[in-house]
Design goal:
The protein has 265 residues and is of the alpha/beta class. It has 11 helices and 7 strands. The chain has helices at 37-40, 66-80, 92-103, 123-136, 139-143, 145-149, 158-165, 169-180, 208-218, 234-237, 239-256, and strands spanning 9-12, 19-23, 45-49, 85-90, 108-114, 195-200, 223-227. A 7-stranded mixed β-sheet has the order 1-3-2-4-5-6-7, sandwiched between helices. Helix 9 (208-218) links the parallel strand 6 (195-200) and strand 7 (223-227). Helix 2 (66-80) packs across helix 3 and helix 4 (123-136) packs antiparallel against helix 8.
Length: 265
Amino acid sequence: MTTVTPPHHRLDGPEGAPVVVLGPSLGTTMDLWLPQLPALSRSWRVLRYDLPGHGQEPPPSGPVTVDGLADGVARLLDDLGIDRVAYAGVSVGGAVGTTLALRAPDRVASLILCCTSPRFGDPGPWRDRAALVRREGVGPVADSAAGRWFTPSFTGADPYVAMLRATDPGGYAACCEALAGFDVTARLGEITAPTLVIAGDQDLPTPPKGHADLLAEGVPGARLTVVDDAGHLANAERPGPVTDAIIQHLDRTAHLDRTWKGTGR
């Protein structure tokens, strides 16, 4: 059994402020969230982390599951002395947030699910992609990443594709296998955190219909925002409206939850 360890992370923003955790997507690092960092870190303590084999996080020593990734984030919060947070995640980062809200509802004061899903399609293609990357490296999936992640008119894909090219093949493949085994569709009604679902209207991997709409309909009281002219990494392609939606949701839910405290560490 793989030991749950806290992931590589970084804290920005004022000490003592309420904490928002930002989870990255498959094939990207914590720097996926750089477009949102200046606005969020003015009023929030921003905690970003890397997935196994991504960024500065070492490759996994064994199988990876979304449950295990969520437990790693919970362990990180324990180590930092943080009891309760807001959580925003893109794609697999959103799946981690959904799982954390189910496994540790007392820790999630507010939830933002961006370009993600309660189930990422049939398991077979994810296992096939994992096998391809283990066999040939990340090159083949990096070559087609811009087309999966962004609309054809977006000209800023290079930094994000570079994150994927630098990703450890074993870490990428293990996260693919984690997505293959992920399905919380039947449990969405158990989520108690106030939830915002953000979708890109041109998202190919997790289009609004069949993914974001299932989250918005399944999570009690969830709100859905669909961002125009945005693909799968909507926070990178359309940072303005995504950042605005996140801040409005955080401000609204912070006022609802008086137990949400920051950390001085």
